[in-house]
Amino acid sequence: MQEVSFRLDGKIAFVTGGGRGIGKALALGLAQAGADVIVVANTKDEVTVAAREIAEMTGRNTLALCCDVSDPAKIETAVNQAMERFGHIDILINNAGIGFVKSVMDVTAEEWSHVMDTNLRSALLLSQRIGRQMIERGWGRIVNVASVSAGLTFGMLNAYGPSKAGLVNLTQMLGNDLGRHGVTVNSISPWFIKTAMTEEALKTEEFREFSTTRTPIGRIGNPEDLVAPVLFFCSESSGYVTGQNLFVDGGATTFGM
Fold first, then answer.
1. Which of 132, 97, 119, 114 lies closest to 20 in space, CA to CA?
2. Over the stretch 39-66, which tens digit does the pLDDT of each residue have?
3. Where do the TM regions start and end (predicted)?
4. Helices 122-137 & 160-178, crossing angle to 10 degrees?
5. Percent over 70 (pLDDT), the chain
6. Each residue's pLDDT tens digit, 66-89
7. Fold of 12-247
8. In 3-state terms, what secondary structure has residue 209?
9. Any catalytic annotation for residue 240?
């Protein structure tokens, strides 16, 4: 009988949006579980500090890569640099994401495209590029960070919700295509999490009250709340789970009248 374990010793993980917030927490959690981590973000200073701190805290090997994942050429360069350093990638965390508050009737084509390119197209391109070498090695784990907004309508989030809905569907499609090769693909959908992206909104009493009263657990989530679910999806013990979307939302999506 196989021992149940969430350890990732000897694995190499590639985490986008890893310079802060959810991505940094996930990168740290993967390193604490034994993985060497490639931390990818669009801000050089931020990603450099994050990778150094994770290495100091865990003793794992880390690599900081500055990359705008909305740019296919930069994605290719980043993956090549990671492969040159580590030789292969076992785990891909597609976490990079952006959003802004604006009516869907007012969002421009350029704004829409930028959100889609960052949140959705990057996940496709990285999954294709890294997934091919996972197929060659017969093992891999891809975890996409989606959102409850993939299935719930929040006014003024315009392109963000559709991009995350697409990410959940992409998870299912990739899970179907890659499963026979030993590669699983799953996603998590958080509710509101305390990050730089939600910091301004959480400063308002009205928004804090809305977020907490609609959450059965009764509090706003922290980035660390997402680590254990991701570790499960990345581990050997989740080998029979693919194409799934897990709500990590304090029960918010079950909230009744």
1. 97
2. 999 999 999 999 999 999 999 999 999 9
3. none
4. 20
5. 97
6. 999 999 999 999 999 999 999 999
7. Rossmann fold (3.40.50)
8. helix
9. no
